[in-house]
Amino acid sequence: MDFKLPTRNENSNKGTFGKVLNISGSKYMWGAALLSSLSALKIGAGYVVLASDEEVLNRINVPEIVLAPLSKISELDASVLLIGCGLSTSRKEIFKSAISRKIPTVIDADGLNILAQIDLKLDNNTILTPHPKEASRLLGCSLDKVLDNLEQSARKICEKYNCITVLKSHRTIVTDGEKIYYNTTGNSALAKAGSGDVLAGMIAGLLAQGSTPYEASCLGVYLHGLAGDLAKNDLTAYGVLASDTIRYIPYAIKNLLTKEV
Description:
Layout: E1 19-23, H1 30-42, E2 47-52, H2 54-57, E3 66-69, E4 80-83, H3 92-99, E5 105-107, H4 110-115, E6 126-128, H5 132-139, H6 143-148, H7 150-161, E7 164-167, E8 173-175, E9 180-182, H8 195-208, H9 213-239, H10 242-247, H11 249-260
Helix pairs in contact: 1-8, 5-7, 8-9, 9-11
């Protein structure tokens, strides 16, 4: 696939590169909120607002992330929605309200688990990022059935939910139900807690900068894997943390920019 990064105009401001509303995190999974917010900024989004519980917000000490309580969600403007990273499945009403915004959306983790429990057709500018177990819940089938045919499972999710599907595995699949991309970057260093949160944030950050949902998904998966490869080269597959992957996003981008020249 011919990857192309979003254009960066010099005559610009933070609004030029989009505002991500990230509804993520819970008492025991505040790290997911931090990782997904940081990765959206690191890949180039102009502005990220993290809406979460007070317990989560009190733990976030990153000046670049704007913080907002869940009670203020209806007052927050955004060009892209990211929802679900460490959110807790108890947040069904917040999920339904947020999804009704009908802006480009990335749904990850507990957002997917909530979606599997309700009857909801999505706008076609929505991206779902399940691992195989989450995919089995979305499809109402066994994990083995998903693993037997990952491509078919990804296509079925697209058909059922009217979305782009990013089905995560050692060779992640991205499909809109017709076009399909098999990712070739990444390694076992990415098989670690928080990795999916980083990917979700990266895809949201690319959406915020104007990439189409399918382009953002493919490019986000590619750069996430490449950042993991670069991190592995320096830190070994054993020692890479999800937060290390975030640090290597700019180097992955630089690698791609060099190829574009």
